Amino acid sequence: MTGGAVAARDISHIVDTAHAMADAAGAAILPHFRQRALDVENKDGTGFDPVTAADRAAEAAMRQVLAERRPDDAILGEEEAATPGTSGLTWVIDPIDGTRGFVSGTPTWGVLVALSDAAGVRFGLIDQPYVGERFWGGFGSARWRGPRDAGALGTRATGSLSEATLMTTFPEVGSADERAAFERVAGGVRLVRYGLDCYAYALLALGQIDLVIEAGLNPYDIQAPIGVIEAAGGVVTDWDGAPAHRGGRALAAANPTLHAAALERLRGV
């Protein structure tokens, strides 16, 4: 990502564009969801990393919105090659985060939209179009809306691991060493739950859980959650306490105190 600051006059247009991208992606995805004839391809010859027509159609729809509204910005997405830009801003998009859940019929996948510059993530949006929930944050605001309610996002003030709820997508987390590090944290919390992909990060920003720990992430997996969670008052770093926007290992926490306690256990201190 090249350098560049976001002008105040540009913020409203950026936020409106992010919402338009999520709307376009949802419209492209929903006709495919829970269809028994869904065509699923495997991108991983040694495991199962699915991609569907819905993934590709959604990313194409999101890119079309950017072509019309913000053609000077760069794009980094999961399904198509990166597109360079001249503005110093990069849209980092995942049309369906949680495709394994999508092909299984669970409503825990989501559309991810982030805007970054050389300093990191400036804005993030997590959308679950099937249940009608959207979470977004950046530029001094953190909001959500759903079919029954809407309001400000805010993370919890949980002060100790023994009171915390921890989530991750895969029980195996990553390598054997990464699994062992995760277990050091999991062994000290009140509750551990699995399998929600990006929806877990949304729940953290909403104040429903306290920690998300994952490994093996790409930038398009984590940048939107970073934007939402940090705007809601949380902390997101890698497992060494450094910025996590380039992917890899991520530790998301509701507050600095809880983040420090989890980071200590991840490091084996």
From TrEMBL:
Pfam families attached to this UniProt entry: Inositol_P
Enzyme Commission number: 3.1.3.15
Enzyme class per UniProt: hydrolase
A GO MF term: metal ion binding
Reaction catalysed by this enzyme: L-histidinol phosphate + H2O = L-histidinol + phosphate
InterPro entries: His_9_proposed, Inositol_monoP_metal-BS, Inositol_monophosphatase-like
Keyword hit for Transcription: no
Key word Transmembrane helix present: no
Amino acids binding Mg(2+): 78, 94, 96-97, 221
Pathway noted in the entry: Amino-acid biosynthesis; L-histidine biosynthesis; L-histidine from 5-phospho-alpha-D-ribose 1-diphosphate: step 8/9
TM regions (residue ranges): none
GO biological process terms held by the UniProt record: inositol metabolic process; L-histidine biosynthetic process; signal transduction
PROSITE patterns from the UniProt entry: IMP_1
UniProtKB keywords: Amino-acid biosynthesis, Histidine biosynthesis, Hydrolase, Magnesium, Metal-binding
Cofactors demanded by this protein: Mg(2+)
Family the entry assigns: Belongs to the inositol monophosphatase superfamily.
UniProt name for this protein: Histidinol-phosphatase
Source species of the chain: Roseivivax jejudonensis
